[in-house]
Write a structure and sequence with these properties.
Elements (H helix, E strand, L loop, with lengths): L2 E3 L8 H16 L7 E4 L1 H10 L3 H7 L7 H16 L5 H12 L7 E7 L15 E5 L4 H10 L4 H10 L8 E7 L5 E6 L9 E8 L3 H4 L6 E6 L4 E6 L5 E5 L6 E5 L2 H4 L6 H18 L3 E8 L2 E9 L7 H7 L11 E4 L1 E4 L2 E9 L13 E4 L7 H6 L2 E4 L7 H9 L3 E3 L4 H4 L5 E5 L4 E4 L32 E6 L5 H5 L6 E5 H6 L5 H8 L1 H19 L4 E4 L5 H5 L19 H7 L1 H17 L4 E5 L5 H14 L8 E5 L2 H5 L1 H5 L5 E4 L1 H9 L17 H16 L3 E4 L7 H10 L3 E4 L4 H21 L1
Parallel strand pairs: 16-17, 17-18, 18-19, 22-23, 22-29, 23-24, 24-25, 25-26, 26-27, 27-28, 28-29
Antiparallel strand pairs: 1-2, 2-5, 3-4, 3-5, 6-7, 6-12, 7-8, 8-9, 10-11, 12-13, 14-21, 15-19, 16-20, 20-21
Helix pairs in contact: 3-4, 4-6, 17-18, 18-21, 21-22, 27-28
Length: about 750
């Protein structure tokens, strides 16, 4: 049958009803107050895509690099077109509409996605698929198809890739539930969502619950001590907006909360006590902490959803120890405060994000500051150091995901976007819910804390694996240096100089014109020194300027930049440095200054080299500024087939190392623009042609005793690590969050090689 009523569904039916539908059926079967609903089964979705002949095209469309935002956008658009533009079979339409008619009274319904990999004990998939509220009979079939299509939103594709779920094996059911025209609504955690302490946390606001879970409103926050059976804290927020049904159109709209109710407490003690009782029943039934959505209408409380809490780390006692001694000094430096929605302490550069198209300015380790969070921000949150919002609460979808990602978050500050500014150095304490001046030491227990457990990023609490292959880390911006150093990486495999320049918002020439050559040199020196100091004596490999002309054109002084059809193939890298020797020598002077300060751990790397002539001209510039190539470690990027094929003559120039930039090398070898959705599916760093070049370069470099490294995005892929460690690469440099996994993978490969040599 295409549909099934909740009365026939339980938690054993996840494969058919999805996580949400199975949970609702289980709650109803337990006698708890759940509004009537039926489920359009996952089998119906699977039959729809297979009978319509769109399944192969669909899965091919979403087989993309989830770190590539352009490819993700193209995949989402193509998947939506395939599903929404295809008709549902007539027999299925009839069954769905007949089930709707059984509600009687032609009611409004909520149409809610229920994926088969959703609301699971180890992955909540919060907010990854769509929900449509106040849907009538005329729009029901369209909204069901849009729920199916939402299985392939950018955020859903990205999240499944991060969690290791195969797109082809995940199906989706759709819950069609009679609407509760909510007067009050919110979310309840039966345990503290970060610490696991025995307290019920309730967030509540006026109107429909979508405003709470989406982060559109800062809700009231109540904590109920389960052991003492008493209300512990009540925080009444200013609730400026609410979501309600428009009486004329039937659509869900955002309205201003009446002035007299904005600062009024939403829940009284009787309602909290009833929610406490329901929370106890739900947790006892499932035998694990639950995240519950609820709403009230005509004085009755209804349960709309329940899923396991996936974000509790360690025991409550461990958490209390982690949070000890956090009061005292430093509170006078607080710039913004709110709810500590995801624990950890991180210092970084604030990036105020007003719209989704501004997320590109968020670099590794930056602090996202925004009015409210949405699940579409997950890719940016992954690279961010922390998150700060004006609105939202601890139970909003993005807050849940930030805890799963281990990104510290302060939610519901009310004024972060108006108080903090771009490029401001701030310290975010996700335990206490405060944002402080980042130039002053935050009050902590004396140990560096990051992510949810208080351990350095990437450590996962294990002893650092000992590997013959150095596992290094990429650092996008100097402000992320301490966080990167805390991973235990063997050094920095790539520090990009262009980020230091782009952060000034001026082209190098404009900066020199405005401030002078010495100021430009000092700017580079200070940035590089920040990273070198955090890692000393571990090596830090700095790449000279490699910004394409279109990036410089956006800066002050960029009007004179050349207009290029394809800047990636144009005026960039070493070719630009050699054509602009004055600017190149200013970069080299920054290196010299740091060498003179004693930072002998710095390594100089030249980008986009094509042949030995490039290298000879560059090393001549080194000598002109007083850097002896014989006494300093330097090398080149192998990013073009030309440099790979000329590797022997490059080695003969006297370089110390080469580093593979697989993003460019793959594009130039395969003639594929990875940001072009039309051909992005053909982009493959593991293509035999690319791998052949990598193996040949490593073999030649070993003959010349030249070190080899990889610092491109592909370095994080286990198979790439396996291939290159097997080939004898010297080091692998990955992003901050991948250091520990790379260490473990390299150790596993090395142990296999040792075992094979013994057996032979």
């Amino acid at each position: 049958m295409p549909v099934a009523w909740l009365s026939a569904i339980s938690t054993s039916d996840v494969d058919s009803a999805g996580g949400k539908g199975a949970s609702l059926g289980e709650l109803r079967d337990a006698g708890l107050p759940v509004p009537p609903a039926f489920v359009v089964t996952a089998e119906t979705y699977r039959a729809f895509i297979e009978e319509a002949g769109i399944a192969d095209d669909l899965f091919e469309a979403v087989d993309v690099d989830s770190e590539d935002s352009a490819a993700l956008a193209s995949a989402e658009q193509r998947a939506r077109e395939l599903i929404v533009d295809t008709d549902i079979p007539e027999r299925v339409e009839s069954s769905i509409l007949a089930a709707y008619d059984d509600f009687e009274g032609d009611p409004f319904v909520a149409v809610r996605s229920s994926a088969t990999a959703e609301d699971l004990p180890d992955a909540s998939f919060a907010g990854q698929q769509e929900t449509f509220l106040n849907v009538d009979r005329a729009d029901l079939l369209d909204r069901i198809k849009r729920c199916w299509a939402s299985l392939f939103t950018q955020r859903a594709i990205y999240y499944r890739d991060q969690q290791g779920f195969d797109h082809e094996t995940v199906d989706i059911a759709v819950v069609v539930q009679r609407m509760v025209d909510a007067e009050k609504s919110g979310v309840m955690f039966t345990r503290h969502p970060s610490t696991g302490e025995p307290e019920i946390t309730v967030e509540a606001a006026w109107g429909l619950g979508e405003a709470v879970v989406s982060g559109a409103v800062s809700p009231d926050n109540y904590s109920y001590d389960r052991e003492a059976e008493s209300i512990e804290t009540v925080t009444v927020a200013t609730k400026k907006t609410m979501h309600v049904r428009d009486d004329e159109t039937g659509e869900t709209v955002e309205r201003s909360v009446p002035d007299e109710k904005q600062d009024e407490r939403v829940l009284d003690e009787t309602e909290l006590a009833e929610l406490h009782s329901l929370g106890e029943l739900i947790e006892d039934h499932y035998d694990q902490p639950q995240d519950v959505e609820w709403a009230t209408s005509d004085g009755s409380i209804y349960l709309l959803q329940s899923r396991p809490i996936t974000t509790i780390e360690g025991s409550a006692d461990e958490s209390r120890n982690d949070h000890a001694d956090t009061d005292g000094g430093g509170t006078s430096d607080v710039l913004v405060d709110g709810l500590g929605a995801s624990p950890g302490t991180v210092t970084g550069t604030a990036r105020v994000v007003g719209t989704l198209d501004q997320l590109d300015k968020v670099n590794q380790g930056d602090i996202i500051v925004t009015e409210m969070t949405t699940p579409d921000m997950v890719p940016a949150m992954k690279r961010a150091g922390a998150l700060v919002t004006d609105e939202g609460g601890m139970t909003s979808h993005a807050a849940i995901v930030s805890r799963e990602l281990g990104v510290p978050a302060v939610i519901g500050s009310e004024n972060a976007t108006s108080t903090l500014t771009d490029d401001q150095m701030v310290s975010v304490d996700g335990d206490r819910g405060v944002v402080a001046d980042g130039h002053k030491e935050p009050a902590t227990d004396g140990e560096p804390r990051s992510a949810s457990s208080g351990r350095p990023d990437g450590s996962a609490g294990d002893t650092k694996p000992m590997t013959a292959t150095d596992i290094k880390v990429n650092v996008s911006i100097p402000e992320a240096a301490e966080r990167a150093a805390a991973t235990g990486a063997d050094g920095v495999g790539l520090l990009r100089m262009e980020h230091m320049v782009l952060s000034t918002n001026k082209t190098p020439q404009q900066y020199v014109d405005d401030h002078g050559e010495e100021a430009f040199v000092n700017t580079l020196t200070d940035s590089m020194r920040t990273v070198a100091e955090a890692f000393y004596p571990r090596p830090v490999r700095v790449r000279t300027l490699d910004a394409p002309s279109d990036e410089f054109r956006q800066l002050e002084g960029g009007d004179d930049e050349p207009s290029e059809h394809n800047p990636m193939l144009g005026y960039r890298g070493i070719r630009r440095s050699l054509e602009e020797p004055a600017t190149f020598k200013l970069q080299l002077r920054a290196f010299k200054k740091l060498y003179e300060m004693g930072y002998d751990s710095l390594e100089l790397m030249l980008p986009l080299v094509t042949d030995a002539e490039d290298v000879h001209r560059a090393t001549a510039s080194l000598r002109e500024v007083g850097i002896d190539p014989e006494k300093r470690d330097w090398g080149v990027m192998v990013e073009t087939p030309a440099s790979a094929l000329c590797i022997e003559e490059l080695c003969e120039t006297g370089l110390d190392f080469v580093s593979f930039g697989t993003n460019d090398l793959t594009q130039y070898t395969l003639a594929v623009d990875r940001n072009n959705g039309t051909v992005a599916d053909r982009y493959d760093e593991l293509h035999p042609a690319v791998m052949g070049l990598l193996h040949d370069v490593i073999e030649t470099c070993r003959e010349y005793d030249v070190s080899t490294s990889i610092c491109g995005q592909a370095a994080s892929k286990p198979r790439m690590i396996q291939e290159l460690v097997d080939a004898g690469i010297t080091s692998v440099s990955v992003n901050v969050d991948a250091v520990h996994d790379a260490q473990r993978e390299a150790k596993r490969v090395e142990q296999r090689l040792i075992l094979e040599s013994v057996r032979d």
